[in-house]
Specification:
Blueprint (H helix, E strand, L loop, with lengths): L2 H5 L12 H6 L6 H35 L7 H15 L2 H10 L5 H35 L11 H23 E6 L2 E6 L3 H43 L7 H32 L7 H47 L14 H23 L2
Antiparallel strand pairs: 1-2
Helix pairs in contact: 3-4, 3-5, 3-10, 4-6, 4-10, 6-7, 6-8, 6-9, 8-9, 9-10, 10-11
């Protein structure tokens, strides 16, 4: 087993560039099975590129029309779509490598490809973790959301991308283009033990730690909604709140992320900590192909989930605004209210103005 499998297990798209499967593909001719696999992976990835780019561009355009304030949750959806779009842009490099049987994008291409994989992966899961945290706080501490400064979500999104970049920085520095057995491949210039430590940290920051945080938050939310649902049933209120739908959609996006990236990480960690594997190089290559398609599929599925999330979030905002407006409205009881004095009218206008300001604060805090 070549060391490239373990060393380059840090990303989904590039793990097939410099492992045993590449060794087979770059040693002269190819068998019929290898050609079929190569064309199949190229076709699937190309279809994913078209589908994913179209869907995420549509999401970004939709967010530009919907984003009325930088304090809106639309900032996070935009961040997720940008991460998916950037990740999908690495597909042409991978497909070209499959068909060309080698790496032809230089040392800079190595650094960019591997770092983009790590950057977008962490930016996505960090954003989902923050979204889950905010929805949790909106339930348990709804009044605190009004006190948050305008535009803080934009600052948080920028901070998340900065943290993701910091985690990818070691890969940018250490990855180099090297020649191994007459093949030019991308390898990190550090020891296997250091690579194990780095990959373990990446697994913890992208899967383990966010999983613990999100799991804890949704367990607490489940307990909270269990009580609220029981109360609603006692009051004959069986209609599901749109806020529930927002929470469910965020959790669905999280589950899809785990479903696409957890198998990849399990496969990479197995190769890293338990070599050699009792399977042929061709089988390992096919598994690598499958993991590649699985991780890229996440960026293709997400735009559909973002659309549903946006729809549910708009419904939630509309019902929330309607509730505030009804709560602050003035209902006359009899005809005598038509003869109110200017002073009473002034008070009513003040109430309306106050209610409007409260409504705007509520909308910006969501």
């Amino acid at each position: 087993m070549a060391t490239g499998v373990a060393l380059m297990g840090t990303n989904s798209s590039s793990n097939t560039i410099n492992n045993d499967s590449l060794t087979e593909l770059t040693t002269g001719g190819r068998s019929v099975d290898e050609l079929l696999v190569t064309y199949a992976i190229g076709t699937v990835l190309s279809a994913m590129l078209v589908t994913g780019v179209t869907g995420n561009v549509h999401t970004l355009v939709m967010m530009c029309h919907s984003m009325r304030s930088t304090a809106s949750m639309y900032v996070y959806i935009t961040s997720l779509a940008l991460a998916d779009l950037l990740y999908l842009c690495t597909i042409p490099f991978v497909v070209c490598t499959y068909f060309a049987k080698g790496w032809y994008f230089g040392d800079l291409g190595c650094r960019l490809l591997f770092s983009v994989d790590l950057l977008t992966m962490h930016a996505s899961i960090f954003t989902l973790t923050v979204m889950s945290t905010e929805r949790y706080l909106a339930v348990v501490r709804p009044l605190d959301t009004v006190k948050r400064p305008k535009g803080y979500r934009k600052a948080i999104a920028g901070l998340l991308w900065l943290c993701s970049l910091l985690l990818a920085t070691p890969m940018i520095i250490i990855i180099k283009l090297q020649r191994v057995q007459d093949k030019i491949i991308c390898l990190p210039a550090w020891s296997l033990e250091n690579n194990k430590i780095y990959l373990s940290v990446l697994f913890s920051t992208s899967i383990l730690a966010p999983g613990i945080v999100i799991g804890y938050l949704y367990i607490r939310l489940a307990r909270t909604y269990w009580v609220s649902q029981a109360t609603a049933l006692n009051n004959n209120q069986t209609k599901r709140s749109p806020n529930h739908k927002v929470l469910y959609m965020i959790f669905t996006i999280v589950l899809v992320f785990w479903a696409c990236f957890l198998p990849f990480w399990v496969w990479q960690l197995i190769q890293l900590y338990h070599p050699p594997l009792s399977m042929s190089q061709r089988t390992q290559g096919h598994i690598n192909y499958l993991m590649t398609c699985l991780t890229y599929s996440n960026s293709c599925i997400n735009p559909f989930l973002y659309t549903l999330l946006t729809k549910n979030y708009k419904e939630y905002l509309k019902n929330r605004q309607r509730g505030v407006a009804i709560g602050g409205s003035f209902h006359p009881r009899n005809q005598r209210l038509h003869h109110t004095s200017r002073r009473s009218l002034s008070r009513t206008e003040s109430m309306t103005l106050t209610n409007t300001q409260s409504l705007r604060c509520t909308e910006n805090s969501l």
